[in-house]
Amino acid sequence: MRINGVQLFIFPHAGGSEVSYVPVEKALLPETVASAICYAGRGRRIREPFQKDMNAMAMDCMSIVREKRKAGLPLVFLGHSLGALIAFETMNYMRRYDMELPELVFFSGRKGPAVAEKKNRSLLSDRELLAHLAIMGGIPDSFLEHPDFLSFYLPIIRNDLRLNDTYCYQQQEPFDIPFVVMNGVEDEHVGTEPALTWKEHTRAACYEEWLEGNHFYFSDTAVFCQTLSRYFSMHFPHLQLPRFKEFI
């Protein structure tokens, strides 16, 4: 049994998949056992129906965490954009079912769950939705002009946006878990003080990191993973992991 390392579960953004985070997973090896959660309806779960609401999505993610959990490794979550919301609600379900909670959580590319985002993006016309995706970035323009890609991708992104559109925050007790709120300096939709919108949901520390880039700032894998590693070193110094030690 491995006892020296960190286990990181990554919750992808709307329309995202495991493939989106392979560079991050590879960059964090071997000290971190990182894996992006595969939501139903894409990737290796392409034949499964989409989750129709946030509760079903959180329950599904909780089951994945339970199945893949490696005993003896500190548990860490990272959620980007819609994935931040999914990670948060997964934590609520884990607490409800008395599961082990993560010891550190990174929330990226989104305001806190109590802040309502612009609704009904899932109801945009194809042209309006494509324009929105082009502004957000993260998908090559050539892909957005390819009919075969769009016929596959648009149903996925619409379902994910529907999860966000229909989400209704329910007041919960704050967690006792340190949060790290990460965003790109060019990502206008997170506002100027996103950490304040997350701070109310934890009694522990809430850190803030701004990195160069837009909504998909984590495409600069080296800087992104250096930031993650710095917080691993801060919160798990007893592990004395080689790569992490350089940040202490």
From TrEMBL:
InterPro entries: AB_hydrolase_fold, TEII, Thioesterase. Residues 7-220 form the Thioesterase domain. One of its GO terms (molecular function) is hydrolase activity. The keyword Zinc does not apply. It comes from the Bacteria. GO terms for biological process: lipid biosynthetic process. Keywords: Hydrolase. Signal peptide: none annotated. Belongs to the thioesterase family. This is Medium-chain acyl-[acyl-carrier-protein] hydrolase. It comes from Chitinophaga filiformis.
